[in-house]
Design goal:
The chain is an alpha+beta fold. 54% of the residues lie in helices and 18% in strands. Strand 15 and strand 16 form a beta hairpin. The two termini are 48 Å apart.
Amino acid sequence: MIQKLKNISIFYKIVILYTIFIFVAVVCSTAWVVRDSMEVLEEKEIALGNTQLEKVTNYLRTKYNMVYDLSNHIHSSELSRILSSINQDSENSRIYSNISNINAFFQGVCSADADISDIVLVTMENSVFSYSAEGYPEVRPSFPFGEYELLKKLEESGDDLYISRENPSVYTLKERDDVITFAGKVFDAAKFPERVQTAWFLINVPTAKADALFQENATSNQGEIQVVNRYGELLYASGEGGGEVSEADYYSEQEAGTSGMRVSYRLEPEVLRKSVQVMTRETAVIVMGIGLVAAFLGVLISRQFHRRMNVLVEGMQRVEKGNLSTEIPVDSEDEIGKISDCFNEMCKKLSDYIDQVYSAEIQRKNAELNALQAQIDPHFLYNTLESIKAQALKVKDEETADMICLLGNLFRWSGNFGEKIVYLEDELDYVRSYLELMNYRFSNSLELDVSVEEPFLDYGIPKLILQPIIENTIRHGFTEDEKKKIVGIVVKQKEQNLEITVYDNGKGISAEKMKEIQEKLEKTAMEEAASSIGIRNVDQRIRLMFGKSYGLRIRSIEKMGTAVKIVLPAGKKKEMERLVQADYCG
């Protein structure tokens, strides 16, 4: 069984594992939903319910405070006097100024609060003044408000304000939905502190306003908001209302200020549990369906990839047998297509390399012969210089002999191509020999000033990087009439870098010339002749060895001199050799 599984295509293995993973994921996710969703939903519902509870409480508190303020306004305003006069003489209810004042009050209140649908003032003699907002059926003036049940409750309670849920259809011209009615008493302000009642007022707020507030921004309706007055009468319920609160229910209650209204929120866990079960079943069906579709598509895709992989394997087997002309058709740009393309390119290059290896072997043998010949030519040159030196000494021309000796030393140093990294001390000796030879030409006017601490002498630097700079200084940095030509070398270490500065007291470089030099330094090494050992060559060699952050930095002040700073990694000779070797190998 295990052996059979090993022989199955890797693509089919992936599909099988993928399908198993999908089914396991479905089972685990369903279990997780059943276990955790109840708690998560309950927390969410409680948070939303408390938010709605706070909104409704604040809303009712605001409405109560508004009605309370209006009641005080009626008592202390011209309305109190008008209502008192109407009680004394009902004919005063027909006086235009009284009607205008009452209507102005009604319109001002409804304009200030768009939630108010009706305002009714009823005198003790049953004179009725009313105002209904636009869109609401008007109040019937003939309705006997003195016999209205709500006003009877108000009188029996002994309160100045009674809040109740009412259906105003009993006193309006058409059918109306329920409202929350604020019923209150109006007293004669002129007889204060004696409480002489002159009228009642009714202010209606439709329960639909509370429904809109409850539904605003709500994402769930699982819980129920209820509002009752101080006597426990139901004013508003967002659900069906009623029912006893069990221990399993979540219950929260707030009081709407001093109104006596209590706002409560109740959440039944059983309601949430049914929602979770429905959601769990739907989730399981959806995930199972997705899993089956994914498995079917996986099989189709794996068969396609398996076929293409077989073509690639067959091609590799042909190459294994020596057929380098094998070419796999590439019909896509996906991973297998890229592998096929790279395989074809590899076969082509491998074939080319095999063809080239014979000519490369011949070139290697020719190079060995040329190297042997190159060793003979310098040996002949050194012997010739020694013969000239001996001839000069015969005629007692010691100066010429010294010059030839110095020249021979320089040739030996520069002609040794085996070392790329040399000791700083050896490079400085080479520079001293070079300046000593140049002093024969310049009548000892050249002076070398070297400032280097002894530990730096064992540091390794690239071979022949100081002499080209000094040669350039001698050729271009001094004027013919300059009597004392100073060339200085200062060696310092700055953090992980070794800085070698070559300076002179020559004529300096103009700004235009400096710009030209900088542009030349930016050119690649291939743009310069291979035999060049100038400043640009030194800069390019350093960058090729150690990277673009190293090289030459040139500063010059016209008529005062020039300084060329060489920036290298700081290290002993062996460390530098390892660094260069690693760079070449990399």
